[in-house]
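Box S1 | Example of a co-folding query
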Amino acid sequence: MKKRKVAVIATGFTGQQHTEAIRRIPGNEVAALVDPHVAALKAKGQALGVEALYTDYKRMIDEIRPDVIHNCTPNGMHYEINKYALERGIHVYCEKPLALTVAQGEELAHLAAQNHLAAGVNFNYRNNAMVQEMRARVASGAVGRVFHVTGQYLQDWMMLDTDYNWRLTADMGGASRTIADIGSHWFDTAQCAMGQNIVAVRAQTLTVHPFRKKPAQEVETFAKAQKSNYTLVPINTEDAAFLLVRFADGTLGSVTLSQVSGGHLNDFRLEIAGEKCALEWQQERCDTLTVGTREFGIQTLRTAPGSMTGDANRYTCLPGGHPDGWADALKNAVSEFYTSIENGTFAQTGMTYATFADGARIMKLVDACMQSAKSGEWAEVRE
Ligand SMILES: NC(=O)c1ccc[n+]([C@@H]2O[C@H](COP(=O)([O-])OP(=O)(O)OC[C@H]3O[C@@H](n4cnc5c(N)ncnc54)[C@H](O)[C@@H]3O)[C@@H](O)[C@H]2O)c1
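Box S1 (continued) | Returned holo structure for nicotinamide-adenine-dinucleotide
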């Protein structure tokens, strides 16, 4: 069987994770890696065992002619690279957020549909087995009428004023940082679990470091900066945000987002409280789901094929007692994307992975948050 040629653009944190996930899907070959950072490209090429290495994505696309690209570049490069690939008939799986503006996101979603190409955005948390279990239980009525939805996404890697990354600049990161970077994940996951969209938000944002010390040399994501040799630069994006959300059926919720919360590494939590029970999922213990009841107290469920609800069984790949993790959820997301290419179903609505249309709508949600933070009022998501 002829293998599908897949190219990964950017070899940072996510580029490496995507390369591994792609290789877990039968029929795929990682045909090329791209990164303008030559030393890193060579090192990652060797570590990942990929021979075709390029510093320019256009040259790679024109020479390798991949069937699919994975765009793992900083946000500011997403639009340009996705567009270039879609215009050449290449399927695209892009890291979140889809682009820097709603207009760019909508244009890309339209282009993918027009050229009949699969286009996914890596909102990988929805593809955790226990998030799918939450979704199945809410849909089946096991939670009953939902009272409210609460959560948080807390990190600490931007806690010090010496912490610096490309996400801090508007041209590479975008006008919103914490909401677009991690809030977007919470929105997608909460919407997936609830089976409905968030339609309005009320937001307050907080920037704790109006100036940061930019190191002389670029720092890879989650790496620590040196404490000397820096320039003081003004910061115009939020370190934290406090949001109220309203779902389509009127259910209310709240979420706290922060990249400056000491001791919290990737502390994503989502809780759906209903009349029969409350379901709580914590990303850092992602193979478990807590069910809180009045009659039986607290029950902890663990992933195991065969013991989950319906379709959620597809998302756990290891026998019980062998915990599914972050990389398995990414593999699930990528796998759903490739299955839709295989079956030709990618143009349908309600795909199990986030499509470009979903990604463009999440950008509208982020925009609504920024609008609300400015006005101090609730903001509806523009449909
Ligand atoms: N889904 C998730 O859980 C998740 C987690 C982290 C990051 N992300 C997203 O992934 C993307 C990348 O983030 P990261 O954390 O991997 O960043 P990173 O800083 O670790 O790596 C970025 C890489 O992009 C390369 N690069 C820059 N310009 C390029 C270009 N023109 N062509 C090719 N490569 C280029 C850099 O040299 C670097 O190697 C972002 O959009 C981010 O929002 C998603």
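Residues 9-15, 34-37, 40, 57, 72-75, 77, 95-96, 122, 124, 181, 220-221 surround nicotinamide-adenine-dinucleotide (CB under 6 Å). DSSP finds nine helices and 18 strands in the chain.
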